[in-house]
Design a protein that fits this description.
The protein has 323 residues and is an alpha+beta fold. The chain has five helices and ten strands, in the order αααββββββββαββα. Helix 1 packs antiparallel against helix 2 and helix 1 packs parallel to helix 3.
């Protein structure tokens, strides 16, 4: 390489490496915003993506400087006169201009995409702060995603058209009739019937049929072996041992009225270990009249079963076994 070529390489290399870094950071940032990557992992990957190109660039520039010293005049120390390098090909010059610009545009679009600033991580709802509020997950430039409305036990969950509040918790050991279908969850043919008393207030101008056929309320239960694994259990109306009345069997709720009923979930025997563990929630969907479709889960309300907002919430979470 001539002196001119070395000098050109010394400024081309950082530009090329910088483009690589930006291109690698874009999907990491997108994953963090859309909560597909935990924040700690995104920070770790981002640091690695920045550190490696920086190290390569520093080492290469040191070699280039050493080569320049070898080509310098031994008496004056000035670089020897060399021919000018051949001009860069047009496609390479276009790449130098377009690549960083395209990467920056992608980063800007990711940062300003729907959900930014409103994601469950950025609002502190899905972080150690565990704030209450409304947030989004999985939103993209083209919309979509799921809206989550999260409150602590003891507070009223205000869903579109209705309110929900947790009143009491009770559990008992129960035989599982279809245990063979999932022996990993019910190895002994028995499980835990988790029963939760809830109040539903109709804020619409028309009667509200809620949780018909057990389609509108779920229990999100964390695994005791793997905190990153969660199981979702549907409401089982009129389960054997469930206190009455069952919410699913109640008549339509008239406008302005409140119905108090129970929801029941057949969970594994280890349910009591994680029933009040972080990220275990009672989930409410929009009313489906027993016909849950793809849009039923586009708006999810969650009452935390692991965090109480007040004394009423603590009482509601206190397990009061019925057997």
């Amino acid at each position: 390489m001539t002196v001119a070529e070395i000098k050109r390489a010394m400024w081309l290399l950082p530009v090329w490496m910088g483009t690589v870094v930006l291109a690698a950071l874009a999907p990491i940032l997108a994953g963090a915003i859309e909560e597909e990557l935990p924040m700690w992992l995104a920070v770790l990957l981002g640091a690695a993506v920045i550190a490696w190109p920086a190290w390569v660039t520093i080492r290469a520039r040191r070699r280039y400087r050493a080569r320049l010293r070898e080509l310098s005049d031994l008496i004056t120390g000035a670089p020897s006169i060399a021919e000018r390098p051949a001009p860069l090909p047009l496609r390479f010059r276009l790449w130098l201009i377009a690549s960083p610009l395209l990467v920056v545009i992608v980063l800007v679009l990711v940062v300003t995409a729907p959900g930014d600033g409103n994601s469950c991580v950025t609002k502190g709802i899905a972080t150690a702060a565990a704030r209450e509020g409304i947030c989004q997950r999985g939103a993209s430039l083209f919309g979509g995603g799921v809206t989550y409305n999260v409150v602590d036990a003891g507070h009223v969950l205000r869903m579109p058209g209705y309110d929900a509040q947790l009143l009491a918790t009770t559990t008992l050991t129960t035989p599982v009739s279809n245990a063979a279908s999932d022996p990993a969850l019910y190895p002994d043919g028995t499980g835990t019937l988790v029963c939760l008393e809830v109040a539903i207030t109709n804020r619409r101008s028309t009667p509200l049929t809620y949780d018909a056929a057990g389609a509108d309320v779920d229990l999100l239960l964390q695994s005791p072996r793997s905190p990153a694994t969660a199981y979702q259990f549907p409401d089982l109306p009129n389960a054997n041992g469930e206190p009455s009345p069952s919410l699913a069997a109640m008549p339509p709720i008239q406008p302005g009225q409140t119905a108090v009923g129970w929801v029941a979930f057949v969970a594994p025997e280890w349910a009591l270990q994680t029933l009040n563990a972080r990220a275990t929630d009672l989930e409410f969907l929009l009313p489906t009249n027993g016909d849950a479709g793809p849009s039923a889960a586009s708006y999810v309300g969650q009452i935390r079963l692991w965090k109480s907002a007040n004394a009423a919430g603590a009482r509601a979470l206190a397990d009061n076994p019925i057997a």
